[in-house]
Please model this.
Amino acid sequence: MLIYNTQTRRKEEFVPQIPGEAGIYACGPTVYNYFHIGNARPFIVFDTLRRHLERQGYRVTFVQNFTDIDDKMIRRANEEGVSVRELGERFIAEYYKDADALGIRRATVNPKATEHIPEIIAMIEKLVRKGLAYAAQGDVYFDTQAFPGYGKLCGQNLEDLEAGARIDVDAAKRHPMDFALWKAQKPGEPAWDSPWGVGRPGWHIECSAMSMKYLGETVDIHCGGQDLIFPHHENEIAQSEGVTGKPFVRYWMHNGFINVENEKMSKSKGNFFTVRDIAAQYDLESVRLFMLSSHYRSPINFSRELIEQAHSALTRLYTARDHYRFLLDKAPQRALNEQEQAFTGRAQRALDAFDAALNDDLNTADALGCLFELVRDANATLHEQSAARAVEAAADAMQAMAGVLGLLTRRAEGLPAQAQALADARIAARAAKQWQESDHLRDELKAMGYAVEDTPGGQKVRKTV
Model:
């Protein structure tokens, strides 16, 4: 597999530290609110990366953290009159609800920052001993001037970063770009004992401590949104490599930004949407397909029209899946004829092309194209008399692709009694050429949430997506 490495700015062959194993660290949410549509993109994209690597035979350890101590969390908890812990637990539970609806698999480990305070303190102590960090008035700062490689991920040196940054003046810092590893307690804040006094960790050190605990001193793949390149991931590199003297990450992957109706998402513009907001209007599996329809490094525009297009595309996929299952119930168990033999070869080539697209820096847009091309070919080739092995070739290839993309997860279920009665009555009406009655029954099924399709293989009724 080729991965575009943000640090080297080129595609590189993925070679893990341990053959056959892959360790991935993905930055997770700060749990003070429902996560928004911009957060959803990296969650979906890197869940797909994990699925693809597993299909390629890797044993993947996937770590995604919860930031459960943070300025925003403290502010929100105080506003609601609850503890930071209560707030965090509530929104971790809400995260799982939305993530499940988006088809995001549970991580191997979902560590919480507050459960790793000893590891965080130990890292800071090492940095202080090495002269890479210093204490000031109960705070501890990383000394960016003492780390020669600072800026290598974002591609800027310390002076350029300082010139382009908007930084609050802090007389306790030796350099404006120095960042907090430990923060002295302020009134009403949660705090832990430390060698520098009572306080809490800074954001950046949390991820370093958690990733190193579960994935070792060097991580195979570290991923997140493009907005995290600086300062979060840059600071992770400095403090992690400062402690170990080893490369922190082998491959950095960052997804592009998401706009809403061609504008940057912001609360002030009124175009800021949480996934929970969107779930009230759209099926979240359609949102997942939409997110995968563009290359992960490209910017993407979120709009009602594009989600509706994704919804229609997803409906076509479910229709195809259910059609193949219908054909399998009737398919004869016989040897493949020449046309069917040719089709099974094309189905395998479509699956190979799908794998190749994802091996090229996780090109989900081209991979989706392979899936829809398979469906078009199968729909044009297969019919009620097709051999079972030919239908199975289509169904198996489709399921393999959908499994990696995290799509088509809903089960095909039998119709409830009332819907089945209407469907049977419609078949009878059509047989008697009672077209008006047939249309009336179709409308009744539609009102119940079922779509009716007349095919050469007969009437098909499916639950609307």
